[in-house]
Amino acid sequence: SSLVSRLRLHVGEGISAHLANRLDRETSGVILAVKGDKRVGKLKQLFAEREVTKEYLAIVHGHLGQTHQIIDPGLGKDDASRVAIKDRVRADGLPSQTEIWVEKQFTSETRLAASPFSLLRVQPNTGRKHQIRIHLAHIGHPIVGDKLYGGDEDLYLALVENRLTAEQRERLILPYHALHACKLRFLW
């Protein structure tokens, strides 16, 4: 909402600004702001019809065996989770597809040990909630700093309850998950 307030200041009084897309909490990157009411419906339609290509960068735990792959298990609610917003891979889930390319693999020293990481270029071909994060965790390579899908959902609960300990922060490595929306492409 503070972003919307700042947008209104930049576009002027009496002219509305709308956000055509959104990002998960802690995801950084490109947000498309639309000036005026007339264009927002058309842009939202482009998003709904999958006419907008989105590209992300992610740093994940581990080295991947393949340089390119498509992850496509269905996604749905995680009924076993204590976190109401959490989804998971499900046999009866909605169709979902994420395409990934390995850009770089590296090893980095953390306070805990030398750890392998990979930088990925990611393209979600569908738009399910938390899709990229779930799919990467599903193949055994969760996003660095992901409190919800990184393997211990208590980290997320600790975050929202404002009780993250120094030890938990150290295990996360980064204060926010390493997912960045870097490109949006569409024809206008």
Secondary structure: number of strands: 10
Strand content is 25-35%
Largest sheet, spatial ordering of strands: 2-10-4-9-8-5
Please, how many helices?
5
Radius of gyration: 18 Å
Shape: globular
Measured between the Cα atoms of the first and last residue, the distance is 27 Å
Q: Low-confidence segments, ≥5 residues, pLDDT <50?
A: none
For the biggest sheet, the summary is:
6 strands, mixed
> What is the ordering of alpha helices and beta strands?
HEEEHEEEEEEHHHE
Helix content: 10-25%
Structure description:
Helices cover 23% and strands 30% of the residues. The chain has helices spanning 2-11, 37-48, 131-138, 154-160, 166-172; strands at 17-19, 28-29, 33-35, 53-61, 68-71, 75-77, 87-89, 98-109, 114-124, 179-185. The protein is built from 5 helices and 10 strands; from the N terminus they run αβββαββββββαααβ. The protein has 188 residues and is α+β, with helices and mostly antiparallel strands. The longest helix is centred in the first third of the chain and has 12 residues, at 37-48. It is globular and about 55 Å long. The strands form 3 sheets. It has a 6-stranded mixed β-sheet with strand order 2-10-4-9-8-5. The mean pLDDT is 90. β8 and β9 (114-124) form a beta hairpin.
